[in-house]
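Researcher: We plan to redesign the surface later, but first we want a full-length starting point. Tokens attached.
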């Protein structure tokens, strides 16, 4: 049995030009995909913030309906089991940035000058005012 011989030493591989073309194609695809990815992350955080605000405001309303007064602080909602745990602000990723809104002035006559009537996100948004949600 005779094996064919290879004349010369021919190495197979990619040329520098081929590698540069592939890298350029990958860079072009990434330049299209990455901005969409980050805008999608922002929209997801905003949707999570809306849902968190809805749930916490609902818990505050239920607490007020059950007890006749607003909670003194957010942790009271957790200790009385209206919430399982203090929610994390999805935009700032912290539980410490919530802005507590006290009851309005017309409720102050009933002895409820202090307490948690509403919460707002303390995260600053350049193009979206999260505090007004």
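Model: Full-length starting sequence:
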């Amino acid at each position: 049995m005779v094996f064919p011989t290879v004349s010369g030493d021919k190495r197979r591989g990619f040329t520098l030009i081929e590698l540069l073309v592939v890298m350029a194609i990958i860079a072009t695809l990434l330049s299209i995909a990455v901005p969409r990815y980050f805008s999608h992350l922002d929209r997801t955080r905003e949707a999570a913030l809306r849902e968190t605000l809805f749930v916490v405001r609902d818990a505050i309303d239920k607490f007020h309906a059950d007890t006749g007064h607003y909670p003194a602080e957010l942790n009271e909602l957790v200790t009385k089991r209206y919430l399982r745990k203090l929610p994390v602000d999805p935009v700032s990723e912290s539980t410490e940035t919530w802005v507590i809104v006290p009851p309005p002035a017309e409720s102050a006559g009933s002895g409820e000058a202090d307490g948690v009537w509403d919460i707002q996100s303390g995260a600053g948004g350049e193009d979206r005012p999260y505090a007004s949600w």
